[in-house]
Write a structure and sequence with these properties.
Oligomer: single chain
Helix content: 40-55%
InterPro entries: Aldolase_TIM, ModD, NadC/ModD, Nicotinate_pribotase-like_C, Quinolinate_PRibosylTase_N_sf, Quinolinate_PRibosylTrfase_C, Quinolinate_PRibosylTrfase_N
Protein name: Putative pyrophosphorylase ModD
Order of helices and strands: HHEHEEHEHEEHHEHEHEHEE
Number of strands: 11
CATH architecture of the largest domain: Alpha-Beta Barrel
Organism: Rhodoblastus acidophilus (Rhodopseudomonas acidophila)
Number of domains: 2
Keywords: Glycosyltransferase, Transferase
Family: Belongs to the NadC/ModD family.
Distance between the termini: 46 Å
Radius of gyration: 24 Å
Strand order of the largest sheet: 5-4-10-9-8-7-6
Shape: elongated
């Protein structure tokens, strides 16, 4: 599970409450206390639950979890309860709620794709791309993980993936020459390449690339390529990328892809988290 530093969560609080909670202060709620309950308004796969809980603790509340990131929740299922002074609850309320809502949308959409793909191929890997909103990579990775997938690559420093845009700067170089250079310079790394055609994919496989990423191939084209690759010695892994979503995940899996690479979950609508407050009648109440 991806963990968040307190400093990262404190920045989220500081962004929303930079100079104190003016409304709560002006209403004189410093002596009031109560409990705040989060629950799923509809079916969802929650994400960032633990981070939201820690954020509420940093705001000054005591938190009890009823669900974990990655669980399958039915409508009405409890997620967490936070107890403490009213200022602490109100300070962390919206930030924690929004954190769970937005990234649970991503996690739920990811789970949908994973389940569709694995209905056809139980061992297939679903990978989320790095095409998430800049600055949100860690949140996106946590949500994708909660949905049962992995991250395709977290950044340019992590893996070697040759794109056609790289090849444009190497006119005349063969794929064999490129693969040989990469193996010599980074012998501990696997080599991946994105291809646009069947013939280019076969050429890359013969050149020794370990993974062929077929960009915007149809399921039928993936099936044809998967069949051709099976006849090669040292068959590379085949990844289908570009336009992969819930509606076609099963077809790509049936076609023989080893990996489905997708950005679709990042555009999913947030899930709705219901929040209710219970006032502690034994605590002092403000005088208006």
């Amino acid at each position: 599970m991806i963990c968040f530093f307190d400093s990262e969560l404190e920045r989220l609080l500081a962004d929303d409450v930079p100079f104190g909670d003016l409304t709560t202060d002006q209403l004189g709620l410093a002596g009031a206390a109560g409990r705040m309950d989060f629950s799923a308004r509809g079916a969802m796969v929650p994400a960032l639950v633990e981070a939201a809980a820690r954020l509420l603790e940093l705001a000054g509340a005591k938190v009890a979890l009823s669900a974990r990131s990655g669980d399958a929740l039915a409508a009405g299922a409890p997620i967490l309860s936070a107890q403490g002074p009213a200022p602490a609850l109100l300070r962390g309320w919206k930030v924690a709620q929004t954190l769970i809502e937005i990234w649970s949308g991503v996690a739920s959409a990811t789970r949908d794709i994973v389940e569709e793909a694995r209905a056809a191929s139980p061992d297939i890997c679903v990978a989320g791309t790095r095409k998430n909103t800049p600055g949100t990579k860690k949140f996106a990775a946590a949500a994708v993980e909660s949905g049962g997938a992995v991250m395709h690559r977290l950044g340019l420093s992590e893996t070697i993936l040759v794109f056609p845009e790289h090849l444009a700067f190497l006119p005349g170089a063969s794929l064999e020459e490129i693969a040989t250079k990469l193996r010599r310079q980074s012998p501990e790394k696997k080599l991946a390449i994105e291809v646009k055609s069947h013939d280019q994919a076969l050429a890359a496989a013969r050149a020794g690339f370990h993974l062929i990423q077929a960009e915007k191939f149809s399921p039928a084209e993936i099936a044809r390529l998967a069949g051709a690759l099976r006849g090669l010695h040292g068959r590379p892994l085949l990844a289908a990328a570009g336009g992969v979503k819930r509606d076609n995940a099963r077809a790509y899996a049936e076609a023989g892809a080893d990996i489905l690479v997708t950005s679709a979950p990042y555009s999913a609508a947030p899930k709705d988290v219901a929040v209710s407050f219970v006032v502690d009648c034994q605590a002092s109440t403000p005088k208006l």
